[in-house]
Specification:
With about 150 residues, the chain is of the alpha/beta class. The protein has one domain (about 1-145). It contains 5 helices and 8 strands. The longest helix has 18 residues, at about 80-95. It is globular and about 40 Å long. Bound molecules: iron/sulfur cluster.
Amino acid sequence: MKLCSACLLGIRCEWDGRDRYKNEKVIELSKREVLIPVCPEQLGGLPTPREPSEIINGDGFDVLNGKAEVLDRNRKNVTHNFIRGAEEVLYIARFYGIKQFIGKENSPSCGIKYIYDGSFKGNVIRGSGVTSAYLRKNGIEVVSEEDL
Ligand code: SF4
């Protein structure tokens, strides 16, 4: 049993609420083992659809250390939603004894190796999303959707 970003399975939890992304390798994997879909942004109390958010001046580890913030496109601070979402995902992992999370790249929540750079221009930098960073800090293995 593993956790995965819900949108990788085609669940319409992305910021615009559309079915615009899924990962065929994750869907194939779901036929062989149980994948529990989680969307940290929804679990953190944000609605769908919602404004897109990005980490400003750092990555998920910096957010957890209080050195960076998560703002939405209208400059509303949603850092607390992102941290709460990460905590909820860890709760689910511990509840089921799950040791691995498969994350969607570029997301400020679920990105494993890459996140958007905070400019809202579609630029990507190396870094971890808030949930991925939080899971890593708490002993959960995180795997990029690109490395399956
Ligand atoms: S927070 Fe994660 S699961 Fe939710 S839409 Fe973004 S990438 Fe997908």
